[in-house]
Amino acid sequence: MDEKKRYAEQWEESSQLFYSNNDYFWMCNQIKQYHIVLEIGCGTGQSTLALVEQGHKVISVEKNQYCLEKAQSLIRSKGYTYEMLEGSKNDCNVIFILADICDENFSSNLSTIAFDIVVCWNVGTYWSQDMFDYYREKLLKYGLTWQQIKENPESSYGEFIQWKSCEIAKEFNLPVHFIDRGSMLIIEEDDPYFISLKDEFKYSKIKYDNKKSSSMSLGGVPLTVEQQVCFEKSIDIVLASILLTI
Ligand SMILES: C[S@@+](CC[C@H](N)C(=O)[O-])C[C@H]1O[C@@H](n2cnc3c(N)ncnc32)[C@H](O)[C@@H]1O
To answer: Residue 93: what pLDDT?
Structure first.
C-alpha cells in the first residue's frame, strides 16, 4: 500500500483513541479564547471536529491527500460544512487547504483569510526515503546537523515543523499553540526547547499544561520509544500543551 495511504489509515486509528479519551477536548480548552484557528496538519480530522464542536471556525492545512479526504468525510458525516480554500465563501465551519507548509510560497495561501491563532498539534508524518530526500536540504538549512537528521529523522522533522509554525504565526503577529506527545511532563523549569522558540520569535509569555493519556501503537501509527518500535497495543504518554502569546 502507498505509504501516505497507510499513514492515513493508521493515524485515523490513533486519532480516534485521542478523541474517545477526550484529549482533543482538553487541547481545545487550552485555546478557547481564540475563535478562528489555523490548524497545521489536521490529519484525519478528529482534532478539527473537536475544534468545530467547541465552537471554533477552523482553517486546516494538510499535505497528505488521503488524510484530507478522511477529514472532509468526518466533518461532513457530523453535519458540519467545509470548503476548499479556492472556493470558500467564508460561512462554513472548516476551510481546508491541501498544501505543505514547508513550500516556499505557502503563506500566500493565507493572504485572504483571517485567523486568531496557529496550532500545531501532535506533529508527525509518514516517513520514506523520498521524504527524507525532499526535506534534507530544508532541515540542514534550518540548522540541524547531518548526523542529527540521520539518527533521528522524525524528531528532526517535527522540530522543524514546530519552528515553521512559529514563523507562520509570527508573520501574522499571532499566538501559537503546540501539543507535544512524549513520556515526560514538560514544565517551564525543565524546557530549554520551547523557551528557545519563545526567545527566538520574541513571544512575551509561555504557558504550560500536561495531561496523562494513552496512545495507540500496534494498529495505529507505530510509536518509537528509545529508538525501538513499540509493539504494545497502546502505551502511556503525556500530552504537553505549550502556548506562546504575544
Ligand atoms: C500526527 S498527525 C496529527 C493530526 C492532528 N493535528 C491531530 O492532532 O490529530 C500530523 C499531520 O500533519 C500533517 N503534516 C505533517 N507535515 C506537514 C506539512 N509540512 N504541511 C502540512 N501538513 C503536514 C501530516 O500529514 C499528518 O496528517
So the answer is: 97
Please tell me the total count of domains within the chain: 1
Q: Tell me how far apart the alpha carbons of residues 208 and 189 are, in angstroms, rounded to a whole number.
A: 11
Q: Which letter, b or e, does each residue of 175-202 get, where b requires 16 or more Cβ atoms within 10 Å of its Cβ?
A: bbbbbbbeeeebeeeebeebeebbeebe
| Confidence (pLDDT) at 87 | 75
The strand pairing partners of 120, in sequence order, are 178
Angle, in degrees to the nearest 10, between helices 3-20 and 23-30: 80
The whole domain housing 84 covers: 3-245
**Whole-number Å distance between alpha carbons of 121 and 26:** 12
Residue nearest to atom 18 of ligand 1 (CA): 100
Q: Does the CB atom of residue 48 touch ligand 1 within 6 A?
A: no
Q: Please report, for the domain that includes residue 148, its CATH number.
A: 3.40.50.150
CA geometry: angle 152, 17, 102, nearest 5 deg: 40
**Look-up: residue for cell 501503537?**
217
Distance 145 CA to ligand 1 centre (A): 24
- pTM here is 0.96
Consecutive 10-residue runs of the chain (246 residues): their mean pLDDT? Answer: 91 96 98 98 98 98 98 98 85 96 94 96 89 92 94 92 98 98 94 97 98 87 77 88 98
